[in-house]
């Protein structure tokens, strides 16, 4: 009982810390879309809507009833993981925040930022294998070691892991689906193979959780949580596979024929 | 040009479909693989509840194999359909070869699932609490029949096979 109170008290603090960046990002996004539309073509409304939906998904995982239940219920935790680590990143990547930033800033500042994007550290963070390891590897460590138990005891760890889940999910998505400016590009085949391995790693981990519950998680919750991770992950990755294949389909049509058919 | 209207056996896309012969095969093959995986998931796991999500006797290798094939089946299904659309817009679709690839892929994967995954890796059985032998026989014999028809269709649509050459020469008589 004492422990529950302890978590609940700290939960408010960690919710606040984790919500703040998303609220700031949303305000910045809407502000930039309005400002930049004065000098450029109007920023498409659907992208702003995608970003709002993405932020809503991420916030649902860190504040409110689902986040509260996630402390004690593994299935709720897993739903939060799907929202924060997969669906929110996908929606936000599709909203093209980097394109928006670059067109809003002054040319000089924008050039500076794109030179940072081209730098070596950024190219490493955009490598599909690196982002897959950060994303799927991180989850393996979280659920197969005692980290999951420790996360509920140490508030700092709780905050760090949630930030990691979102950022790793975002980098992973952005390294596979190129909609924002991407200086270091990899072929479709390369990205498809890495994506396949990552999705397999996600599926295998889901069944491993089902079979061997993480420390402190009751068997029944591990079973529903594992199945939710397996099928929920499939559903979101299906959308990503569809987008990736559609980009191949559009890109593989020779330009000359494109002009003829249109 | 006039021979095409005289002999309906020759399709108008003959030259292009030879160029894209391999893509016709792969599109069909991948779709066949994805189709079997989808039927396995939708019918045997979700509708009938015969297959189990996890079986305690599963080997670690079985878990890895299932993970790889399950993930691959989504890429195969979606990728194959985009390839199909690509063949159509290039006017290069060769349906017989595509169906040959489909049956070959479907039969091959079902045989792998039925013998390697179900039996050797003990991923899960087709159904529980029944005499499993008739189920295994139907499963694997169906797979073999698909595989054989697939191979026959693929041989008949081989580029420059006697059958095709005869058709082609008939057209210009």
Automatic annotation (TrEMBL), chain A:
Primary residence: membrane
Residue ranges annotated as transmembrane are 12-32, 44-67, 79-102, 123-143, 155-178, 190-210, 230-249
One GO CC term of this entry?
plasma membrane
Does the UniProt entry include the keyword Cell inner membrane? no
Q: Name one Pfam family in it.
A: Caa3_CtaG
The record's keywords, sorted A to Z, are: Cell membrane, Membrane, Transmembrane, Transmembrane helix
InterPro entries of this UniProt entry?
Caa3_assmbl_CtaG-rel
Topology term for the membrane: Multi-pass membrane protein
Localization terms from the record: Cell membrane
* Protein name, entry field: Cytochrome c oxidase assembly protein
Per the UniProt record, the source organism is Thermoflavimicrobium daqui
From TrEMBL, chain B:
Write down a Pfam family by its short name: DUF2243
Say which domain of life the source belongs to: Bacteria
Q: Which InterPro entries match?
A: DUF2243_membrane (IPR018719)
Q: Where are the transmembrane segments?
A: 25-48, 68-85, 92-112, 132-155
Write out the entry's keywords from A to Z.
Answer: Membrane, Transmembrane, Transmembrane helix
The answer on whether this UniProt entry bears the keyword Transmembrane helix reads yes
The yes or no answer to whether the keyword Plastid is present is no
Q: What is this protein called?
A: DUF2243 domain-containing protein
Q: Which organism is it from?
A: Thermoflavimicrobium daqui
Q: What is the lineage of its organism?
A: Bacteria, Bacillati, Bacillota, Bacilli, Bacillales
